[in-house]
Amino acid sequence: MLVLTRKSNQSIMIGDDIEITVLSIMGEKVRIGIQAPREIPVFRKEVYLEIQAERGEVRAAGPVQEALDKLST
User: Fold this and answer.
1) Nearest to 11 by CA among 22, 2, 1, 3
2) Containing H/E element for 69?
């Protein structure tokens, strides 16, 4: 994992096409903006894992899967 420190209004680039910008920092919450080509799907991780589980593809392990299982019941 690459760990970077950014301030508000600073960005990082992933490849040539994806830009992640820190929009604001409010206490423990950080708002980010992601600019990516339309053909690249962007999801919060918990949503992505749920989509994968519904498709029967990748299942999360451990606490993440337990939390997702509780949400679906």
Assistant:
1) 22
2) helix 63-71
Q: How far is CA 56 from the centre of its chain?
A: 20
- The verdict on pTM exceeding 0.90 is no
Tokens of 73: 């019941």
Q: 5 vs 20, 33, 35, 36, 61, CA distance in Å? A: 12, 16, 19, 21, 28
Domains of the chain, residue spans: 1-38, 43-73
Task: Kindly report, residue by residue over 14-43, the tens digit of the pLDDT.
Answer: 999 999 999 999 999 999 999 999 999 999
One-letter amino acid identity for 3? Answer: V
